[in-house]
Task: inverse folding
C-alpha cells in the first residue's frame, strides 16, 4: 500500500489548472532574508489557569511571541537569521483531512529548499501510525507536482489522531531521534496541537534536539484564540456547504412544499453552521451555543420551530430551510444528561439491550419517549473524547419527527389551520471534506507552511505558525509564531459540554461567541431570514471572477488582528517611554504618571474580573 | 403569495456575474429571418406501435420534421417566415425543477420580442395549478433580470406535474381560450411532454387555436430519443454530483477505512449514475439496467460487492466508493415482485401493519429477511405512476447492511482475513437540483426557448423544440422541431420495470443503452476503476477557464447527431435522383437499380426485425 503514496496521478482539467496556481507570499517572507522580532513573554489568556499551565509546561510556557518581519523593517532589536544550515524535518497529518492540508507541506518544502537546497523534508505515511513506525516518504518537487492546491490528505494519508500515551510519545521520540530530525511539524486541530505542545515539552525535558511545530488545520474552525483567526479548511468547507444549502433553498422556493432540515459538521462548536447561515441566508439556524446558554430543551426548540412554521403558514409559505450542527444534540441539557447515564452504563459493560432498564426514572422516561431510530443511535459507544458518536446521531430527523408530531397535534386541536407539514432531512457531513481547496485556503495553508520553516530556522520549540489580519489581502497578512501553551486553558467546571479531563491544560475548541459581531449580525437578520426568504446563492466555489476571492463572513466582521493591535500597543508604550525621558518637564511627567496610574488600575481590575471565564 | 413571484431579488456576486452572461445563438437563429424546411413525414421509431399511435393522435401524428436554417441557406423548398404577427404565448413549468429552466423562458421571451415587440409572454404561476386557475404573470425584461442563468423554478414556481384528467385538460383549454393564447409552451420531462402531445391533439380536435409546444427539461436525462440528445438540467446535475462524489473519493483515499455507498437520482433510468461514474471514476457503479438485463438478485449484487471488497483487501485497500441509482431497488426481480404484492395489498386498503401476514410465502420470506428500516420504507404507498417511493427507500443502506453481514460471515468462516468492513451511506438527491446551471445548460435552454418561438411562428402544433449535434460548439448546433408523437412508443410487455398503462402511447423514459458507446466505455474501464483508485476530480462547476465548457461524457461519446445524419441521407437520395435523371446511361441506371434494390431489401428486413424492441 505504501507505494501508492505520493505517486503522480491523472488530474482533471480544473485540477491541472489549480496545480499550476502559485499562492502569493506576504512581503516579509519574500526573498531569503527574514527578520524575527521577539515580543513580550506570552501568558495564557486565562490568568487563573496560568499557574497550572506553567507547572505542566515548565520548559515551554512563557516563551515570547515571534513576529516575522521583512528584512528592511526598522525594528531595532529584531534578529536577522542569515545562516540557514541544512535541516531534516518530518511532517505528519493528524486528524481529519481538511482541504488545503497539502499546501502546508508544499509551503514548508518550498521554504526549506529556498533557504538550503540540502534540507530534507520527510513525510510520515499514514499519519501518526506512520510516525510511530518510522514510515516516511521524502517530499520532493516531483512528489508534490500533482498535489499542489488539491484537496484531501492522500499525498501521505492519515490514521489515528493521537500522540498522547507514554508508548505513543516514546515512539514519536524514537522516530525523531532515529531519523535525526531537527524538527517535527504536526498538521492538525485542537487535539493534535495539544499533543504537539506536550511533545515539545517532553522532547525539551528529555534533551531531544527535535523542535515541535504545530499548524492550525481543521475544518471545524474551532481552533481559534487571540493568535489564531481561522483554520485551514474552514473556508472551503463553508463555501461548499453554502453552495449545497443554497441549492436546497432554491429547491424549497421552487417546490414550495417542504421544510429541509440540514445537519452540518461542528461537534463542539457551531462555526460552520453560523458561517453557512451568513453566506446562504436559510430561514433558521439552531446553534448549539445558543441552546446551551439558554438551557433550552429539545421540546423548547421543537416549539420554536413549530411557531416559525405556523407564522410562515399564515403568510401562505409552506417551505423552509433549517440548519443545525451535529453537536446540537449534546447541547440539550436533558439529552446530555441522558447520554451521560448511557455512557456510564456502557463503560460498566452493560449491553445496549439492557441499558434502558437501568436508567434513572426521568432518563428512562425521556429515552422511551424518543423514536426508536434515535434510541438506537444514542446507545452507540461514546468516542475516545467521551462525546457521543455525533456523526451517527440523526438529530435532523429527530427534530423533523418532533415538529411533525407537534404540528399534527396543533392541527387536531385546531390551533394550526395550515397545510400539512412535510420535512426532508439531510446530513452534509462528508461531501465537502475532500473538496478542492478555495483560493483562500490554498494561500493560507501555503503561507503557514513557510512560517513553519521560519519557526524551525529560529530554533523555536512548541510554537504554532500563525497568520493574522487575514481579512485583508495577502500583502497585509502578519506572520508570527505563538507558543501553543499560551493558547491553553484549564477547564474547571466539571463535566461540561465536552467532558474533558479536569484540570489538565489543553487547547479547547472555541465555541461561537454569543457576544461577538458574527452572532450579532445573525441576530440582526434572523427575523428577515425567517420570514422573507432572502436566500442568497454564493454558487459553486470559483477560482476566477466574482466570489473567487470571497472570504468567510465571520472572518471579515470580527475585529480580529489581535497581533496587529498588540504591536500597536507596544508602539504606544515605546512612544510614552521616548517622550517621558529623564529631562522632560515636570508637567509632562505628572500627566504621564497620572494617566498611566489610571490605566494600570483599570486593567488590573479588568484582568481580575475576567479571570473566571475564557474570553475566546 | 403570488406577489412573491417574479420579484427582483438580491444576488450574490457570482449570481450577478451569471445574470449578465449572454448565451450565443446558432447562426440559423441570429437576425430576424429564419428559414423553415420541412423534412419527410415522421414515423415512430417502433413501427409496430405506429398504428396505435396514429389512431390515438389522428391530427398530430405523421407531421413532418421542421429544420430551422439560416436565411441564406440554399435549400430550394424552405420557407422564409417574414410576417411575424404579435402573438400571445403562455408558458408553464411542469414537474421537478431542473437547472436551466429559467433560461427557456428568457430565450422564448427574447425571440418573441425581437420578432414583434407587441407579442406577450404570460407565465403561469405555480405550475399546472396556475394554468388551471389562470393565474399569470407577464414576463418582461424587468421580471427576468435577476433570473437569467439562475437555478430553480422560483420565477414562476411549480406544483403538480399532470395535465391529464378530463377536468385538467378542460381547465387548460379554458385558460388558453380565456387568455386568447396563440400558443402554450410546456417545460418538462417525459410525462409533461406526453401531456403536451395529448393537449395538442385535444386542442386540434376541439378547434382551439392555441398551439402546444414542448421543451425537454428534466434532470434525470431520460427524455432521450432519435431527436433529443439530452435534457436541460442533466449536465448541471451530473457536474454537481460528480463534484461531491469526487470529494468523497478524495476523502476515502485520505482516511483509507470506509466504503461509501452513494445513491443518486435516476428512477427509471441510470443516466446520472453512468455519467457521474465517467466523470469521477469511483470504484463501482451498479446500473439498474445491468441488473434488470442480467436478472441479478440483491444477493448476487451483494456477493459481487463483497468479492470486490475482498479483492481490494488483498491489495491492502480498505476504502472505496460505490454508486447506485435510486431506481436500483425496483430492478431486482425478487424485490420488484415483492413491491408489486405490497402495492396491490395497499390498493386493496390493507393497512401497512397487516401486509406482512398477507404476502405470498416467498414474498413474506424475503420481506422478513430484510432489515426493519427497509421493510418500513417498502410499505410506503406507491407514487402516482405506480412506482415505489424511491427517494424514501434507502437502498444504499440496505446494500451496505447486506455487504457488512456477508463480510462478517466470510470472516467467521475464515474465507476473508482482512480488516473489518466499514460503510458510510449517502443520498445525493436534492443537493444539486437548485444549483446555478452550467454554461452548457444555460446555452441549451436559452436556444431551446428561441426554437420554441419559431415553432409557434411556423404555426406548428404538438412539436418539441430540439437541438442536435450538441457535442460540437454552439455554432454547429442544429435547430429543429419534431412532432412529439414521433417519439412515442407503446408498451406491450405488461408490468415491466415501470408499469405504465398498457397499450397507451406515451413518451417513455429512455434507459441506459447497454449496447451504447457510453456503457462500453464504462465496461472497458471498470476493472481499472475498481482496483486502481483512478479517482478523477472535476472540481466545482466553473464558469471560466478549464472545465467551464466541459460537456457530459455520455453526450460526447455517443454517435448522436441523428438530425444531421437524417439530412445527410436525404442529400444522398437527392444526389441519386439528380444523377439518375431520364437521359442517363443504361449502365448508370442498372447500377443504381441494383444498388437501391439491395439497400431497400436490407432495410425492410432490419425494420421488421427491430420492430419488437424500442431502440432508444
Result:
Amino acid at each position: 500500500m505504501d507505494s501508492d503514496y505520493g505517486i503522480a496521478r491523472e488530474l482533471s482539467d480544473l485540477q491541472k489548472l489549480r496545480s499550476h496556481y502559485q499562492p502569493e507570499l506576504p512581503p516579509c517572507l519574500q526573498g531569503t532574508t527574514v527578520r524575527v522580532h521577539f515580543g513580550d513573554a506570552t501568558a495564557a489568556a486565562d490568568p487563573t489557569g496560568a499557574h497550572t499551565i506553567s507547572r505542566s509546561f515548565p520548559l515551554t510556557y512563557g516563551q515570547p511571541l515571534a513576529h516575522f518581519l521583512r528584512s528592511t523593517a526598522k525594528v531595532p532589536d529584531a534578529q536577522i537569521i542569515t545562516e540557514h544550515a541544512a535541516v531534516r524535518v518530518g511532517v505528519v497529518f493528524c486528524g481529519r483531512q481538511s482541504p488545503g492540508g497539502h499546501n502546508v507541506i508544499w509551503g514548508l518544502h518550498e521554504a526549506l529548499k529556498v533557504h538550503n537546497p540540502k534540507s530534507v523534508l520527510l513525510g510520515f505515511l499514514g499519519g501518526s501510525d506512520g510516525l510511530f513506525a518510522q514510515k516516511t516518504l521524502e517530499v520532493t518537487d516531483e512528489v508534490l507536482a500533482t498535489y499542489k492546491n488539491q484537496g484531501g490528505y492522500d499525498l501521505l494519508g492519515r490514521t489515528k489522531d493521537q500522540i498522547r500515551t507514554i508508548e505513543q510519545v516514546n515512539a514519536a521520540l524514537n522516530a525523531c531521534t532515529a531519523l535525526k530530525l531537527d524538527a517535527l511539524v504536526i498538521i492538525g486541530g485542537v487535539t493534535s496541537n495539544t499533543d504537539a505542545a506536550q511533545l515539545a515539552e517532553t522532547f525539551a525535558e528529555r534533551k531531544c534536539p527535535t523542535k515541535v511545530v504545530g499548524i492550525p488545520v481543521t475544518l471545524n474552525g474551532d481552533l481559534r484564540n487571540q493568535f489564531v483567526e481561522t483554520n485551514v479548511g474552514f473556508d472551503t468547507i463553508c463555501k461548499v456547504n453554502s453552495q449545497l444549502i443554497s441549492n436546497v433553498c432554491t429547491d424549497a422556493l421552487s417546490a414550495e412544499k417542504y421544510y429541509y432540515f440540514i445537519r452540518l459538521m461542528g461537534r463542539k462548536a457551531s462555526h460552520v453552521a453560523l458561517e453557512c447561515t451568513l453566506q446562504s441566508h436559510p430561514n433558521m439556524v439552531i446553534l448549539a451555543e445558543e441552546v446551551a446558554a439558554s438551557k433550552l430543551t429539545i421540546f423548547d426548540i421543537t416549539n420554536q420551530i413549530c411557531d416559525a412554521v405556523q407564522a410562515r403558514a399564515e403568510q401562505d409559505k409552506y417551505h423552509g430551510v433549517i440548519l443545525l450542527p451535529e453537536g446540537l444534540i449534546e447541547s440539550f441539557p436533558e439529552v446530555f444528561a441522558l447520554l451521560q447515564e448511557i455512557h456510564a452504563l456502557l463503560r460498566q459493560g452493560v449491553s445496549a439491550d439492557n441499558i434502558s432498564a437501568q436508567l434513572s426514572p426521568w432518563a428512562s422516561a425521556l429515552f422511551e419517549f424518543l423514536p426508536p431510530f434515535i434510541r438506537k443511535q444514542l446507545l452507540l459507544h461514546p468516542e475516545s473524547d467521551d462525546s457521543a458518536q455525533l456523526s451517527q446521531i440523526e438529530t435532523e430527523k429527530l427534530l423533523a419527527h418532533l415538529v411533525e408530531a407537534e404540528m399534527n397535534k396543533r392541527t387536531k386541536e385546531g390551533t394550526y389551520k395550515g397545510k400539512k407539514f412535510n420535512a426532508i432531512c439531510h446530513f452534509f457531513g462528508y461531501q465537502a471534506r475532500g473538496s478542492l481547496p478555495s483560493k483562500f485556503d490554498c494561500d493560507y495553508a501555503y503561507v503557514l507552511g513557510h512560517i513553519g520553516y521560519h519557526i524551525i530556522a529560529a530554533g523555536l520549540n512548541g510554537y504554532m505558525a500563525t497568520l493574522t489580519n487575514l481579512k485583508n489581502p495577502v500583502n497585509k497578512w502578519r506572520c508570527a509564531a505563538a507558543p501553543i501553551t499560551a493558547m491553553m486553558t484549564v477547564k474547571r467546571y466539571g463535566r461540561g459540554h465536552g467532558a474533558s479531563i479536569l484540570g489538565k491544560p489543553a487547547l479547547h475548541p472555541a465555541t461561537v461567541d454569543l457576544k461577538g459581531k458574527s452572532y450579532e449580525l445573525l441576530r440582526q437578520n434572523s427575523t428577515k431570514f425567517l420570514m422573507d426568504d432572502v436566500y442568497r446563492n454564493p454558487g459553486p466555489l470559483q477560482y476566477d471572477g466574482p466570489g473567487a476571492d470571497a472570504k468567510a463572513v465571520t472572518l471579515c466582521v470580527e475585529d480580529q488582528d489581535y497581533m496587529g493591535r498588540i504591536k500597536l500597543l507596544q508602539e504606544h508604550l515605546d512612544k510614552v517611554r521616548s517622550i517621558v525621558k529623564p529631562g522632560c518637564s515636570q508637567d509632562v511627567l505628572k500627566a504621564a504618571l497620572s494617566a498611566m496610574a489610571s490605566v494600570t488600575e483599570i486593567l488590573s481590575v479588568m484582568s481580575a474580573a475576567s479571570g473566571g471565564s475564557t474570553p475566546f
